[in-house]
Amino acid sequence: MGTIWYYTKQLLLWHNAESLEERPTVGGAHGKRLRAAEELLEKAADPAKNPDAIFLLAEMNFYGNWSYPRNYSAAFKWYKELAGIDGNSTGQHMVGFMYATGIGGAVPKDQGRALLYHTFAALNGDTRSEMTIAFRRHQGIGTPRNCEDAVYYYQRVAQKAIEWWDSGPPGGHYLQKHTFRIADDHGGVYGEGASASSSGQNGMRHKQSLDSAKELGDIVEYLELLAKKGNLPETISLGKIYYEGSRNLPRNIPKAREYFLRVARQHWDRDGKVRTGGPQYLEKFAGRAAGHLGTMALRGEVGQQDFAQAVKWFKLGVSCGDANSQNGLGYMYFNGYGVKEDRAKASQYFKTATSQDFPLAQVNYAKMLIENNEIDRAKRYLELAARHGNVEAFYYLAEISNSAEAKDRSCGIATAYYKIVAERIEPLQSPMAWANKAYENGDIESALVGYMMAAEQGYESAQANVAYLLDESRSAFPVKSLLSKSKQQTPEQLEKFKRNQELALIYWTRSAKQSNIDSLVKMGDYYLSGIGADADPTKAATCYSAAAEHQASAQALWNLGWMHENGIGVAQDFHLAKRYYDQAFETNPEAYLPVTLSLLKLRVRSAWNTVTHGGVKGIGPEPKKTRVSLREFLKNWYEAAAVAEGEAVLDDDIANAQLPGDEYAYEEGFDEDIAESVVILALAAAVAALVYYRQWRQQQGNRRREQEQRAAAAAAGQQPPPPLPPQPQQQQEEEQPRLGIWDDPQMPGWGMPH
Fold it and tell me: For 194, which DSSP code?
């Protein structure tokens, strides 16, 4: 019964959208102590204006520390008072946050005042407000878009982030990712298969990540079983899993070292001498293990830093051709760790590792090139490292793109790169880790507050999480309304409900602007149903059309088909409706049942429309493919290229509104495709010309030999030989007139029928 009840709840999505409710007053002995502490703090805060007391009162009321009941109105009062004392940046930041969100109804939303307080806090050095101002200038929230202001503030945050990251052990602090979407744990906003994040091109990737999260324990247990049998690939994989850690498996450095040592000891003895008799592939895996063991010794991740041990392991790994070891040894020569500083050797090791596409080596080698002012070469290596998500590569690319001396300075690209750096180095300013922990512990209100703070700083995943938690429309069949009579809501409850809907739409919109397809579809749902805004089917159709581009969302395509079928927000057109239904199935074959039922109903309606001579365009026949000549093919190809170029410019303008910098890569790729096509056509034409020339030479040679034979026979007084009978192919060519490539009969052999 428990299993049945669990899946029944999952099917019907029994859910109440979260709200920022105030907690009940705490009673008992603990409540008495809290009230006594509150009185003492108020005495210190009110007459004496003690900033520490004011700060503590504000934090207690806002976060509910020590089980103190939340009171957002009181928190706003104390934060505002704190902001007025010597320009306290924390108070200014929190007042700006509360004006921006209207959290808990403590204060009406006012984006102008929010921007004002965040600006003051940012100028006073508050990192969270710097990110907030940068994001608002970047997206144009409460202020006109200004790329220069956005790049200025994002650069300040990125510089702080890199300084903090670089203050750690060699190679920087370890960065644990906390930016996850809650909805992805449930298959996406619309569930498994219906969401863009778990269907189509993303389906397999999402399934693999979801299975890894759910079955990680079973996977580790299976790998450990194979490792005990001496399987080298599984042993190395276990070492990497424990060394890198994941969302569901904390790092375990000692255990990772145990597995790496197990592999290394199969290839080398304790003196570093190679053991004989091992399998051929042992050297490769031993090199990887040595690289990780050297990294641990270099960073001091198992005990104290040991440069001598690190050099030993890196040299053993280099002897096996391991890229990690090559980079590590180069790093030690570059900084003089355990060896004499030698920049030439460091450069050589870095360069060798870059040939194996190792991102850390690419960044280190690029930094040496930057020191030598070889910016263009350095940029190429940094772009290679950025493909692997290396945060340091993004930072240096941002610095190059933002440099005033750069000939191709791009504010948009620099802003995008700085934003990545600021968001990747989370411990400096991100509340995502705290919000995730609160959500896992069942404290939804605290999680909502944390996600909202991160959302204001520009984290897309946090924006999606806030909207998801506030979403009232997750289920088409709300169980509570089916099992119980609906109660009359008070005006306060209705106002709170409306506020939550508006807030959800705001964050769906901001998430959608950062290329979240499911959020864009949700925007359409809200505009279609009039949730959080007045109903506007035209806006809904626009959202669905944007989400349906490149067939990214089957849900959006199906919605467009339904709208065209019923003429809601768009012109009623059964033919277009069928096309969208078909594309929904092509995008996600799991949509077979809803698409089949929809098409069945659509065909019935289309047939009735035809019988009754209705004014709706019915389902027409599919267009037939026509045969074209080479001239028409080339003409169509050039026209399509011109149209594509125009669309590329339009796409660039749209992309610039979401993520500046995308247009640069797109134009470059488009030009490369055109150049490649032209080269291929030129080579094909050259080959055809050579074949034609060879055939022409053969024909001329045959004619000359035939004339010589006739002349010799005539001189000897003999009968000249009769001409050779025509081949079947020649007879056919004589029966049908030739058409040249440009309809010229003087150009034989290249004609194409029209």
Answer: T
pLDDT for position 2 = 38
- Give me the mean pLDDT over the 315-342 stretch: 95
Q: What's the confidence (pLDDT) of residue 738? A: 41
d(Cα 369, Cα 381) in Å, to the nearest integer?
10
Q: Which of 67, 61, 101, 65 is nearest to 79 (CA)?
A: 61
Residue matched to tokens 């948009």: 412
- Please report, as a single letter, which amino acid is at residue 475: S
CB contact at 8 A, 574 and 599: no
Number of H helices, E strands in the chain: 33, 0
DSSP 103-169: GGGSS---HHHHHHHHHHHHHTT-HHHHHHHHHHHHHTSSS---HHHHHHHHHHHHHHHHHHHHTSS
H-state helical runs in 425-516: 432-440, 444-456, 460-470, 479-483, 491-513
Reported residue count of the chain is 754
Residue type, 698: Q
| 416 contacts: CB under 8 Å, gap ≥ 6 | 659, 660, 661
Token pair for residue 250?
A: 């904390």
State the Cα angle at 434 between 461 and 152, rounded to 5°. 55
HSE-CB at 90 with a 13 A cutoff on CA atoms is 12
Would you call 217 exposed, middle or buried from its count of C-beta atoms within 10 A (0-12, 13-18, 19+)? exposed
CA angle 7, 9, 10 (to 5 degrees): 60
Task: Extract the runs of DSSP E, i.e. beta strands, from 509-597.
Answer: none
Q: Which residues pair with 617 in a beta bridge?
A: 573
Residue ranges in 628-750 assigned as alpha helix (H): 630-658, 662-715, 728-735
| DSSP element (H, E) containing 327 | helix 323-335
pLDDT surpassing 60 at residue 513: yes
State how far the Cα of 510 lies from the Cα of 523, in Å rounded to an integer.
10
Rounded CA-CA distance 471/497 in Å is 10
Query: How is residue 424 annotated by DSSP?
Result: H
Backbone angles phi, psi at 81, to 5 degrees: -65, -40
User: Is residue 317 a contact partner of residue 298, using CB atoms and an 8 Å limit?
Assistant: no
pLDDT of residue 17: 45
Phi, psi at 489, each rounded to 5°: -85, 145
Output the average pLDDT for the chain. 82
Is residue 514 classed as helix, strand or coil in its secondary structure?
Answer: coil
The 10 Å Cβ neighbour count of residue 396 is 23
Least confident among 364-373, 680-689, 712-721: 712-721
Kind plus residue range of the DSSP H or E element containing 18: none
Determine the pLDDT at residue 731.
46
Grade residue 455 by pLDDT with cuts at 50, 70 and 90: very high
Distance, in Å, from the CA atom of 362 to the CA atom of 373, rounded to the nearest integer, reads 16
Backbone Cα Rg of the chain:
35
Calpha distance 26→30 (Å, rounded): 7
On whether the CB atoms of residues 554 and 571 are closer than 8 A, the answer is no
pTM of the model: 0.77
Pick from 679, 514, 512, 182: which is nearest to 526 by CA? 512
Per residue in 224-252, pLDDT (tens digit) is 999 998 889 999 999 999 999 888 888 99
CA angle (145 as vertex; 649, 136 as ends), nearest 5: 125
Q: Contact 296/271 with Cβ under 8 angstroms?
A: no
Task: Indicate if the pLDDT at residue 462 is higher than 60.
Answer: yes
Residues 736, 745: Cα–Cα separation, whole Å: 11
Mapping DSSP to helix (H, G, I), strand (E, B) and coil, where does residue 274 land?
strand
Q: DSSP of 102-122, one letter per residue?
A: -GGGSS---HHHHHHHHHHHH
**Whole-number pLDDT of residue 200:** 66
Q: Is 601 exposed, middle or buried (0-12, 13-18, 19+ CB in 10 A)?
A: exposed
Q: What tokens appear for 290 in the block?
A: 């040595």
Nearest to 118 by CA among 138, 139, 100, 104: 100
User: Averaged over 538-551, what is the pLDDT?
Assistant: 90
Cα–Cα distance for residue pair 89/125, rounded to 1 Å: 7
Candidates 544, 438, 445, 460; CA nearest to 500 is 445
